[in-house]
Amino acid sequence: MNNRYSLRKEPLFDKPREFIKGIPIIVWLLFLVIIPFAFTIAMSFYSSKGLVIEKSFTLANYIKFFTEPIYPRILLKSLRLALSVAVIALGAAYPVAYMVSFKLKRGKNLLFMMCIIPLWVSYLVRIIAWRSILGNRGVLNTILMWIGIIKEPLTIFLYNRFAIAITLTYITIPFVFIPVYTSLEKIPKSILNAASDLGANEMRTFLNVVLPLSMPGLITGFIFAFVIALGDYIIPLQLGGTQGIMFGNLIWSQFGFSFNWPFGAALGLILLVISVTILGLTAKYGSTEGGFLSE
Amino acid sequence: MSRLSVEAGTEKRGTILKVYGFLIFVFLYIPLVVVIVFSFSPTKTIVGMSGVTLKWYKELARDAELLKALLHSVEIGVLAVVISLLFGTSGAFFITRVRFPGKGVLRAIILLPYILPGIIMGLTLLIFVRSLHIPLSMLTVLMGHVSFTTPIVLFQVSSRILRLGPTYKMAAMDLGATPVKAFIFVTLPMIRTALIGAALLAFTVSFDEIVISYFLTGTWMTLPVYLYGMLRFGLSPKVYAVSGFILALSLSLILLMTRYIGSSAEVVVPRKKLIKASR
């Protein structure tokens, strides 16, 4: 442009010396992310003969995944479970976020903290807690027997899909709460007043104003819950029993007793592609700040 | 409908919402309470619980293996924090203050180790280190931890830098400070609380981490990995005592953290000092 009043055009790149700041993070990225991923991709094209990994290019691992029906079936089962976990977590977290954001005058910060504290409390301790609640001699059985609803302890609570789902929901609730709450807090209260001045009741205001405006946070939370639930392997291992073979522990077993690293690498990359695709949706439809790592 | 009844209806819905919220809070906290109660229980079940005991906690103090694992966790946490403060803080300045195209993509890739399911980072790093014939050791566990603590620091610090804006540093340099001096005397004090908050958060996450560590651990175990091993023999009172201990430590760290994270302390602190000074 030769308009001399136009703003000075910003250069695309800064001076080279500025890039010194970028060296440490690029080194980190290379050695802990990019190169390990390159090795994993290579590994997924190798094959395993007993305990030896044969380094010749083959598509066998991917073919194995798509042709033996058991593997896509496990993936599908995990996708379904992750979907229901994300829906339930959203159903639990959204109303609470709405309440904390709109209904409270005092104690808002305290309740906000109380919602996210479980997020930072040891993941393994929370799993142990659920095992002790759902177990044979667990809290739930004890209470039911004490009330008199049952006479003998029930074994239906632990080591099945229900136990996995409830624990995963428990783990993911704070992940949904944070982005939903952040997006609700961003809604200017004047818009709500405007809606009520125009005669909308609370339900109508919610459906026509609050819900659409909080949609980015809702989508982000939902997606985070979904991806976390899909990729977990310790919860299925600890609470799933024989019913609980999910995609995560299928992958884990390739590195454990099956000792088929090339197949495990292929399964891991399939999970990676699914996760990145779904997470990519947050960039398009979700809120840019998930609110976990930005203050 | 009269205005009064509309308000009454809203009130009612508000109550239902509050009851629902209360139940969700119960759901969130009951499991934590259960762990704590069990850790003080003299018997294995809650039915016959009579009184409280510190027996199990005392037993922990005598378990040399456990104490070793605790020490390992602290070591890993501190090392991971120090390393990720270097990588993360410099990276935060790079990503917020330096102009280059493709920044969004870089941000997204840096975030990956934190938001991807831990199993993916665990297996890629395992394949990487074993391909290079690096034995599973403290080093491999540390690599795993630095992979997710660095994004924590980077994003905590970069959101603080973005909020501050570049004007302070410019002002300092207009007043004759060199870039290094401007950083040490102007920028660093302003991001200090973000650094402390990020360090505490990174340490907490590192201290609790198992999903990635489990892939990268040989015989050198952190506390969560050791606890996971204990679970093979079922839920013993000792498992609850370790859990109770981890819970107490996490909660203390979180409470400490709230003093630093998300508060624009830079704005508040000087003002308080001013008030004190004027009195």
Q: Would you kindly provide a written description of the structure presented here, covering whatever features stand out?
A:
The complex is a heterodimer of chains A (295) and B (279). By secondary structure, chain A is an all-alpha fold. Chain A has one domain (68-285): MetI-like (MetI-like fold, Orthogonal Bundle), CATH 1.10.3720.10. Helices cover 68% and strands 2% of the residues of chain A. Chain A contains twelve helices and two strands, in the order H-E-E-H-H-H-H-H-H-H-H-H-H-H. Chain A has helices spanning 23-44, 60-67, 70-103, 108-120, 123-134, 139-147, 161-185, 189-197, 202-231, 234-239, 247-255, 261-285, and strands spanning 47-49, 52-54. Chain A has a two-stranded antiparallel sheet. In chain A, a hairpin with a 2-residue loop joins strand 1 (47-49) and strand 2. In chain A, helix 1 crosses helix 12 (261-285), helix 4 (108-120) runs antiparallel to helix 7 and helix 11 packs antiparallel against helix 12. Chain A starts with 22 loop residues before the first helix and ends in a 10-residue tail after the last helix. Chain B folds into two domains: 1-39; 55-278, Orthogonal Bundle (MetI-like fold), CATH 1.10.3720. The longest helix of chain B is centred in the N-terminal third of the chain and has 37 residues, at 3-39. With 279 residues, chain B is mostly helical. Chain B is 78% helix and 0% strand. The radius of gyration of chain B is 24 Å and the shape is globular. In chain B, helix 3 (64-97) crosses helix 10 (223-230), helix 5 packs across helix 6 (138-164) and helix 7 (167-174) packs antiparallel against helix 8 (179-208). Chains A and B meet through helix 1, helix 3, helix 4, helix 5 and helix 6 of A and helix 1, helix 3, helix 4, helix 5 and helix 6 of B.
